[in-house]
Amino acid sequence: MRHVFLLFVFYSFLPQTGYADVPSKPIVRTEFTETTAIPGQPLTLRITVLVPTWMPQPPVFPSFEVPNVLVRLPSRASTSVSERVDGETWSGVSRAYRLYPMTGGQFVIPAQPISLTYADPDTRAPIPFSLETEEVRFSGLIPDNARDVVPFIAAESLSLEQIIDGTPDTLSPGDAVSRKVIAKVGGVSPMFLPSILTVPEQEGLSVYAREPVLSESDNRGVLSGTREETLTYVPSHGGRFQAPPVTIKWYNLKTGEVEQTSLDGFELTVRGEVPPPASKRDDIRNIVFKAFGVLLGLSTLIRLGVHFYPDWRERLDAAREKWHASEDYAFKTVLRAVSAQDLDRALKALALWDDRSGHIPAQQQSQAVEVSLARIGQSLYGKATKKVSDDAWRELKEHLQVLRKRRLKTDAGHRSRSDLPPLNPGNNV
């Protein structure tokens, strides 16, 4: 800002006459002639601020930054200027910007404020003032023959260099091999270069990536530079692994053609045992997990059984004793003996059933049951046929079922009467 300071000194010694007839408000001018560029190529925007006297300090220009637009200031971006306005000499500052669209499409930079301070024409007192630039519109245009270049990069030159540190053909598990790729580009900033190296997903091969290193230079507005990417490969077991090739498609600004720059890949050979395929290891792992799950379940069941077995056993024994002491169990024992046509077992079971048949006395057994038992005895010790014997057993079973229904009904009625309160609870008989 040396020129601004010299202007300030120069104008401070001028005779302070004639300013009253000159417009006192500063003005701003926007110059933007070319409005279309290939992504990565610059468009020049110039903003000029003029005041009727001088500026005791430099104006505050905007940055003009918007998404997908790279904004750069060239060397000596700001210069002191002077112009004739209404016959008077005005002083000011002009600033140049380079706008680089990073993609294809339309871009709009809205009006931006500029803050400045200039000297009052009459009193030389500093006056703060604010101006506003014009809206700026421009576009990034991808050539028709380069629309398939994704991501798009346009340059005057592009080359790739590969540096391998290590011996990829004689490795042991745990050894490391580093791969550095350097992309050199001319006519565009290296910021527009895409990622070069991809991390391969190979089982048994760990890959570590360093942060990319960018270096940029500017030669009278023509940008160039390098992008370095480094991967380190570390195998964990024996086998063969691949470092894939590298290919970059780009649009040549000099020839107007799409070109391709490539690097060969290479193989990493690792001594040592090669593990089975992942599918087989997964099968073995699944079998082991399932077996472990079964063992864990059995162990849990055993522990639960040991803990709760005494209580379960006690309850089971109590339930079994209750069942054996029931009328239902005694009657089923009778039916089993009848079905087996075992008279001795049937008589013993009948005696047990009589004891558990509620409130019907044993001597009130059905006459039909007695007759059936008598017929069975005659068939066993007489000359009755097999058919007569079978009929006698079948009749005994039918009579027993009828008798049981009558006994259960009588027993239920007796219990209901015994549950009723006395008719005259106040009388003592």
Keywords:
five-stranded antiparallel β-sheet; 6 helices; Immunoglobulin-like; 3 domains; 429 residues; alpha+beta
Structure description:
Mean pLDDT is 83; it is low at 1-22. Helix 3 packs antiparallel against helix 4, helix 3 runs antiparallel to helix 6 (386-418) and helix 5 (367-381) runs antiparallel to helix 6. The protein has three domains: 2-140, no CATH class; 144-270, Sandwich (Immunoglobulin-like), CATH 2.60.40; 327-418, no CATH class. The strands form six sheets. Strands 1, 3, 4, 5 and 6 form a five-stranded antiparallel beta sheet that branches. Strands 12, 13, 14, 15 and 16 form a five-stranded antiparallel beta sheet that branches. A three-stranded mixed beta sheet has the order 2-10-7, with no helix packed on it. The longest helix is centred in the last third of the chain and has 47 residues, at 278-324. The protein has helices at 2-12, 278-324, 327-339, 343-355, 367-381, 386-418, and strands at residues 27-31, 36-37, 43-51, 69-72, 78-85, 88-101, 105-109, 113-119, 126-132, 136-140, 154-155, 157-165, 177-186, 205-209, 213-219, 222-235, 239-243, 246-252, 258-263, 266-270. By secondary structure, it is an alpha+beta fold. 31% of the residues lie in helices and 32% in strands.
Task: Kindly provide the radius of gyration, computed on alpha-carbon positions and rounded to a whole number of angstroms.
Answer: 54 Å
Stretches where pLDDT is under 50 for at least 5 consecutive residues are 1-22
Calculate the terminal CA-CA distance, rounded to whole Å: 133 Å
Order of helices and strands: HEEEEEEEEEEEEEEEEEEEEHHHHH
What would the average pLDDT be, to the nearest integer? 83
Structural class computed from helices and strand pairing = alpha+beta
Shape: elongated
